[in-house]
Amino acid sequence: MSHGEAYAVVKGRVPREEEKVLLYQNARNALTAMLEGETESVLVMSSIVAVLHQSMPHYFWSGFYRVIENSLLVGPYQGTPACLRIRHGKGVCGTAWAEKRTVVVADVHAFPGHIACDARSASEIVVPWRNRKGEVIAVLDIDSDQKEAFDAIDEQWLEHLAASFPLL
Question: Is the pTM of this model over 0.85?
């Protein structure tokens, strides 16, 4: 099954396991070719968000929150307007940053302290993104308008991408 066939099969719903794997493989291959030798962090983040957002039919909002001083600041991202700043330990993004781990939330409305930037968001995954020294300098935040849209496959592939494309 090609990327186009996989996307056509899953458009409008959360992809099945084999479809997700193919979509993530295609996204990784596109990013590898696109980002070869690139070191400018904003270009890397913009490319990652664009490729993932366009490739994954279960993504409603996707973007980076960058660690700047004591807050996470939004951008680059794709989707509806977003919360501009998130404090350390607050919401799903702030929790992933504080705990330095991926956080998967099946139902954001059941997550204590969830920050609702868009009421249509139903589930979320947030992956810490590190620099070459291993420091968390951003988080990749992805929302779906469907509950339980993210699973171990999303977590594994997004963590693989984070390890493959560290930021400066």
Answer: yes
